[in-house]
Amino acid sequence: MVSFVEQLNESVAYIRNRCKGETAVGIILGSGLGNLVQEIETTCEIPYEEIPHFPVSTVQGHRGRLLFGRLGGKPVWVMAGRFHFYEGYTAQQVSYPVRVLRLLGVKTLLLTNAAGGVNPKFSIGDLMVIQDHISFFTQNPLIGKNEDELGTRFPDMSEPYSKSLISKVESLAAEHNIPLQKGVYTGVTGPTFETRAEYKLIHLLGGDAVGMSTVQETIAAVHAGMAVFAMSVITDIGIREEENTITHEEVLQAAREAEPKLTLLFTEMVKSL
Ligand code: HPA
Predict the structure, then answer these.
(1) Which of 63, 144, 233, 254 is the most exposed place for a label (fewest CB within 10 A)?
(2) Is the CB of residue 116 below 6 angstroms from any atom belonging to ligand 1?
């Protein structure tokens, strides 16, 4: 039986053998937000299913490949498509690619996602910088034996999202006249969208947005000592009293429409790193 760390090393060795890239920046793209890859001068591409020990993405709107290339002239590893707990993967599998990125040399991780807004000031299409998160409604990916080679047993989580990366994006957004919201992302398991009572509860608990990804990846990244930056596209407003039905198609559509702003910001951000 190959140990977890040995599995990671095998994944990394396979990737290194196919892609010669070295870089400190990694990006994971969320639902309906895969078009950023068009901005990348790709030099190497590996479908997830070809990487040993990698889970395989199944959900519609996710493409499932690892890319190496340049964004705004800077080298990046990009995970186009992520793994979700609701697909049946364990929390550890969901965060597996983050560990692989870390072992590939990534120290700064940029994440995107589609999320439901529960802050009444938010509108569909808003970009929200994730300032902090609530992960209690999901499963922690660090449960189980701690791999001391990857990180400490009890990681500090006082600054899961790097303050310096947040201020960098705020200045870039101001420069390009892109309005930004800032708030707390609440991670849930899905796959159901929330009931009205649940959206209200999330808001009462201090959440500004809710989504089915990101928190497990962030936890694994912080555990491994990475600096994380994450941005949500608000694709639906959960706290509406009327017309409160939400569909996956609507989420993907709203994500696609907001994507150009996000692509611009991410490109500028990578350039500045
Ligand atoms: N809830 C949970 N996840 C989501 C939502 C939502 O309203 N929108 C996009 N992802």
Answers:
(1) 144
(2) yes
Structural domain containing residue 84: 4-272
Cα-to-centroid distance, 247 and ligand 1 (Å): 9
Mean pLDDT confidence for 158-165: 97
Q: Atom 7, ligand 1: which residue's CA is nearest?
A: 116
Q: What is the CATH number of the domain that holds 133?
A: 3.40.50.1580
Q: Is 193 in the pocket of ligand 1 (CB under 6 A)?
A: yes
Specify the number of domains making up the chain: 1
187: Cβ below 6 Å to ligand 1? no
Q: What is the pLDDT of residue 106?
A: 96
- Above 80 in pLDDT, residue 191? yes
Residue 52 has pLDDT above 50, yes or no: yes
Q: What is the SS3 string spanning the chain?
A: CCCHHHHHHHHHHHHHHHCCCCCCEEEEECCCCHHHHHHCEEEEEEEHHHCCCCCCCCCCCCCCEEEEEEECCEEEEEEECCCCHHHCCCHHHHCHHHHHHHHCCCCEEEEEEEEEECCCCCCCCCEEEEEEEEEEECCCCCCCCCCCCCCCCCCCCCCCCCHHHHHHHHHHHHHCCCCCEEEEEEEECCCCCCCHHHHHHHHHCCCCEEECCCHHHHHHHHHCCCEEEEEEEEEEECCCCCCCCCCHHHHHHHHHHHHHHHHHHHHHHHHHC
Q: How many angstroms separate the alpha carbon of residue 209 from the centre of ligand 1?
A: 8
Q: How confident is the model at residue 187 (pLDDT cuts 50, 70, 90)?
A: very high
